[in-house]
């Protein structure tokens, strides 16, 4: 659970820093909202891909294949 919260916190911080440019309004602009959605999607896909590769490597190692590429 702690790992998940760390990942979530880092995701929020990164996307906020990259996408939110001002505080003229308490709501996000359409441009900021679009940026946040793309940022979150990109980060989640990257995390999923990393998890998939980790599982593949783990399976290969457990079958005696070692660290292949």
TrEMBL record:
**Which stretches does the entry tag as region Disordered?**
50-69
For the keyword 4Fe-4S, the answer is no
- Where in the cell? Mitochondrion inner membrane
Q: Name one Pfam family in it.
A: zf-Tim10_DDP
Give UniProt keywords alphabetically: Chaperone, Disulfide bond, Membrane, Metal-binding, Mitochondrion, Mitochondrion inner membrane, Protein transport, Translocation, Transport, Zinc
The way it spans or sits in the membrane comes to: Peripheral membrane protein
Q: Where is the Tim10-like domain?
A: 1-56
Q: Name one GO cellular component term.
A: mitochondrial inner membrane
Q: Which residues form a coiled coil?
A: none
GO MF annotations, alphabetized: metal ion binding
Record's subunit section = Heterohexamer.
Please give the PANTHER family that the UniProt record associates with this protein.
MITOCHONDRIAL IMPORT INNER MEMBRANE TRANSLOCASE SUBUNIT TIM9B
- The name on file for this protein is Mitochondrial import inner membrane translocase subunit
Q: Which organism is it from?
A: Amniculicola lignicola CBS 123094
